[in-house]
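Reopening: DUF378 domain-containing protein still failing for me.
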Amino acid sequence: MLDRIALALLIVGGINWGLLGIFEFDLVAFIFGGQAAFLSRIVYTLVAISAIWCISLFFKDRELLPDAA
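Support: Ran it again with your exact input. Result attached.
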C-alpha cells in the first residue's frame, strides 16, 4: 500500500516537473499559493520522501508473473 502511495506522489511530482520544464508553470505552487507557501512545501517534501522510498523498489524481489503464452 505504501509503495502505491509513494508511486502516486512521484507521478504527481513528475507531472509537476514536466509542466515546470515545458511551460514554466508550477501546478503545486499555483494550487497552494506559491512555492514558499506552507502547503506547497509539504507537497514538495512528500514527493521527495516518496522518491527516497521508491529507491527501495529496485531491491525488492518481484513476484513471478505467469507466462502469457
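The radius of gyration is 16 Å. If you still see a failure, please send the error message rather than a screenshot.
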